[in-house]
UniProtKB/TrEMBL annotation:
HAMAP family: ApaG (MF_00791). It comes from Novosphingobium resinovorum. InterPro entries: ApaG-like (IPR050718), ApaG_domain (IPR007474), ApaG_sf (IPR036767), Uncharacterised_ApaG (IPR023065). This is Protein ApaG. Residues 8-132 form the ApaG domain.
Length: 132
């Protein structure tokens, strides 16, 4: 099955694409727990080799509660992306409401030692009405 990336952001030749899906089998709606999985593809169309150093997520639920998640790398990795290459990973997000959103940025280091922030596009988290 080919993944459909619904959201994307481009920063200085680096594209971040996101596909998100609600997972009813991982959710416990009766306990107020909804769960989404998201697939990220990072595409390096620059002339530099880039290393993903850190992530910064802003996760908002339907009540306006914001969680900021920061840390090194993604899913335990700090991938190196050569020019023309991409990196994919999958992660998940639990919420205590059936709707919310995520957005943020990655910090990348170029092969010349300079760093920049690459935008992670805003994307909604929305459980189907039948799941609530």
């Amino acid at each position: 099955m080919k993944e459909l990336f619904q959201h994307s952001a481009i920063t200085d030749g680096l594209t971040v694409r996101v596909a998100v899906n609600f997972l009813p089998e991982q959710s416990r709606i009766e306990a107020g727990k909804w769960f989404w999985v998201y697939h990220i593809r990072i595409e390096n169309e620059t002339d530099h080799t880039l290393q993903l150093m850190t992530r910064h997520w802003r996760i908002t639920d339907a009540n306006g509660k914001v969680d900021v998640v920061e840390g090194e790398g993604v899913v335990g990795e700090q991938p190196l992306l050569e020019p023309g290459r991409s990196h994919d990973y999958v992660s998940g997000c639990p919420l205590s409401t059936p709707q919310g959103s995520m957005e943020g940025y990655y910090t990348f280091r170029r092969d010349d030692g300079t760093e920049f922030r690459a935008s992670i596009p805003f994307f909604p988290l929305a459980a189907p009405a039948t799941a609530g």
